[in-house]
Design goal:
Layout lengths: L5 H17 L4 E3 L1 H11 L1 H20 L6 E8 L15 E12 L3 H67 L5 H36 L7 E3 L14 H7 L1 H21 L5 E13 L2 E14 L7 H67 L5 H36 L6
Parallel strand pairs: 1-4
Antiparallel strand pairs: 2-3, 3-5, 5-6
């Protein structure tokens, strides 16, 4: 919240209705409603959810190797012959075959393990997508809130500069102020009006950015209510454990497990395969299937030579496993650095906001005293102008620090893989 003197507070109170009237009436969005809408329409989040569902189906499909297969066939043939000695085979038959793999070189177990690892990767990707969306939404919400406050502040600064110019003009007309002070006051008013124009444009950009995160097409129809909820940073952080809990680390670990299963799948080609199948066949003419035959087959297939394909396949899978492990080791160090940086930025942003608010409180008091002294001829224009500029800079700094405090907390949550998106 901005710190204003009594006169500026009255000016702001008069200014807010005018600003509200200038803004087109539209939907009022709270933070909770923004979270709900962003979670419902964000394409990256939808894609991550769909990928997780696909991975879950792959796990179920990988387990099919442990189950038997059942196939049925039905045929009818029409055979004619001029030979009197030919044997006419039955023209109709139906067959039912059941087969079960008894051993496939541990391929089935490895396939299930690999599918489960890929599902873990998809879960980590979904968690990362939620954290990324949470950061984008908090950043966009805080930026839009700051842009609204900055527009109010910039208009208040314009009014204050106008009042200051009138005061300098009166002193200049009475011969108690020089022309340089008058020109400088006019220049600072022009700058304040320019910054007000910048604030209007920044507001439109912030509205467009917020609408993009929400998946909206009409950014000017939305207005905010409330602020992003914030919490104090933890006093102590177990960074080693925090690294292990991040979605990036969990994804990398699952990719290593998937690569290990890939080695087992490739190595299964060197093992024999044992299969059991049974077939029942019914034959006859014109679908009168009166002849029945049953067959049971136990087959053992032993690979002997595949032209080197199996050998090089195992070597390739082993190299991929080694690469995945090396990637994970490097990622752990990188994540530790990112977490340390995010936490430091978070803590510093919280403290800086408190410091800037203290400075603004002091600058507001000094500005009121300085205005009174300058009006009574007890302070030079140069000293008064320094205090006025300090007040304006402090007001802008508080707005910036409030936004930075929200985005710093959001960046810390994203680094952990957490956020506001359910």
């Amino acid at each position: 919240m901005l710190v204003f003197s009594n006169s500026r507070f009255l000016t702001l109170a008069l200014l807010l209705p005018a600003l509200a009237a200038a803004q087109p009436a539209g939907e009022v969005l709270t933070w909770e409603e923004s979270v709900r809408q962003a979670a419902a329409v964000n394409p990256d989040l939808r894609a991550a959810r769909d990928n997780l569902r696909a991975a879950e189906m792959d796990v179920r499909g990988a387990g099919s190797g442990f189950l038997p297969t059942l196939t049925g066939t039905a045929t009818k043939s029409d055979t004619s012959s001029t030979s009197t000695t030919s044997i006419i085979a039955p023209d109709s038959n139906a067959a039912l075959t059941a087969s079960q793999n008894l051993f496939a070189g541990f391929r089935d177990q490895a396939s299930v393990a690999q599918a489960r690892a890929n599902r873990t990767v998809a879960e980590a990707n979904l968690r990362a997508a939620r954290a990324r969306l949470s950061f984008d939404l908090k950043s966009a919400f805080a930026t839009l809130r700051t842009a609204v406050d900055a527009l109010v502040l910039s208009n208040d600064i314009v009014r204050r500069r106008e009042q200051n110019l009138r005061l300098v003009e009166l002193r200049y007309e009475s011969g108690r102020e020089n022309k340089g002070s008058l020109y400088l006051s006019q220049a600072t008013l022009s700058q304040a009006r320019f910054e007000s124009l910048q604030a209007e444009q920044a507001l439109r950009v912030a509205q467009a950015q917020f609408a993009r995160v929400l998946g909206r097409d009409n950014p000017q129809t939305m207005r905010l209510a409330g602020d992003v909820p914030v919490v104090a940073p933890p006093a102590q952080v177990d960074f080693a454990q925090a690294v292990q809990d991040t979605p990036d680390q969990q994804r990398a670990l699952a990719q290593v497990e998937a690569a290990k299963s890939g080695v087992d799948i490739a190595a299964s080609n060197f093992w024999p395969s044992l299969d059991l199948s049974g077939t029942t066949i019914h034959q006859g003419d014109d679908w009168k299937l009166e002849d029945r035959r049953n067959t049971v087959l136990l087959s053992l297939t032993v690979p002997i030579f595949s032209g080197g394909k199996d050998y090089y396949g195992v070597r390739s899978a082993g190299a991929k496993e080694s690469a995945a492990e090396a990637t994970r080791e490097g990622l752990i160090r990188q994540l530790r650095t990112q977490l340390e940086q995010a936490y430091a930025g978070y803590v510093q942003a919280v403290v800086k906001l408190s410091v800037d608010e203290d400075f603004l409180k002091a600058a507001s008091a000094r500005a009121e005293i300085a205005r009174s002294k300058y009006s009574n001829g007890l302070m030079s224009f140069e000293d008064w102008d320094i205090i006025e500029n300090d007040l304006i800079n402090r007001q802008k700094a508080v707005l910036q620090s409030r936004r930075d405090r929200v985005t710093a907390e959001a960046a810390w949550e994203q680094a952990l893989g957490n956020g506001a998106i359910p």
